[in-house]
Amino acid sequence: MGAEQQRWQEWRQEERAATELPGHRPRRLALGYANSYHVGMSSLGFQRTHQLVFDQPGWGSERFFLDGAGVPLTVETETAITEFGCLAFSVSFEQDYVHLLQLLDRASIPLRRRERHPWDPLVVLGGSCAAINPLPMSEFVDAFPLGAAENVLPALLAALEEEPDKLSVLARLATTPGFYVPAHHEPEALHEPGRKLRKLELTAEQMRAPGHLPTTVLVTPRTEFRDKFLIEMSRGCPEKCRYCWATFGMGKFRWHPTEFILAAMERARSVTDQLGFVATAVGDHPEIERILNSACELGFRGAVSSIRIPAVTEGVLRALHASGDRSITLAPETGTDALRWKMGKFVPNELLLEKIRLIFDHGFTQLKLYFLVGLPDETEEDIEGILDLARQVYEIMRAAARRTGVMGHLHLGTNILIPKPYTPWQRHPMGDQRDLKRKIQHLRRGVARLPNTTLGQLSIRQAVWQTYISKGGVDVAPALERAARGASLGELLREYADAIAPEVFQPMEGPLRWHFLRTG
Question: Domain 3-198, what architecture?
Fold first, then answer.
């Protein structure tokens, strides 16, 4: 037995099915996550898609990941992915584009779609990256489903089942709502009025119907959320932060019915005692306190992915603390009120600090605050404002420690702004590299002087690369191909500097290349 086969057997034995899936099915889809098993199985969207394949009569799903060497094998039957008619990837982060190409390369599948043979699998890319900007991967991917798997997966599987060959499948998908097929669709022509492709997002009506609540299918200790059963609470966000694709690309804020969430908890009881509630705005579910209290009464240890600052209430904190949670994540994004107002987040520091006091008063000991560096109109005072907030939070933690005897910890999860498509800042360039370097150094020096406070890693080079591959067009393909074949980040930034500079460091003028998609 090979090392990869032994690993899959061991990891499969650790999986506990929260939802029973059928056994052998006559038709199989290879469902890939272009990262490790650990990362892929942490994705609720990936697990949800795995389950939805089985909901289609006669179809089963087999998972594969980046782990291992040689031809990738599926977890379920240890079958080489070259034996499948279609490889369907779920991609949420542009950095995984290179991993996807490496998986194809390891399977000896030509990277460029035009160079593949009739017997090579069809390559499909779904997930949020498909709806943000599919153009950088359009030289490699045969078809992009646009939107929720509930809305696009049945059409994909029907085409695979009913059409005689790949060309027929692609021709059919090109006329099916919710698909971008590069071989049939010219983005320039699709910019014309009435011809834009539409993303098929999950609607509020669908979310109120039984069967549309995404939850964990397989609980495993080998994820970011070790042994947790994840439940999606809502989609969209009440805030309209100008940097955030989710709030503009996912439509209006809408939530899953409470009775569906409570029923999902009952299913989870047989496999775990830990729950994770996930969403862009977990705390804005209208019955969040009832849900958290019910989880506690059922004996679960509960946690939330993050929570909007205004949604921090005594009732929410009591329920989370009672369930064993001691960590909270908030996203003030900036250190000053003025800049936060400019980005569309109307939360003053006074309210933020009031909520943080409440958090530590209720016995929490770990606080993570998300910040962005490189925002439009950002000044040195705004960067110093982040440190000012950190100092004030430290004093709040120290005051709480005098009462409890336990000193808290503050982590500043700071990132560089990547101006994303379909956001109000989509035309903005990334921040000047010298300015960013100076601001980051100032943050590092300031945080080093603060006890019990840490700063997340920031890489300007990684931010340049991510901006390039998130906003670029088809001409990004050679750089992605070089990266997949082993070129280092430094080599890529040097070799493609002339192509990167106008895409990353200059404002975008005129029609935007990704606007052949309708989103929101």
Answer: 3-Layer(aba) Sandwich (3.40)
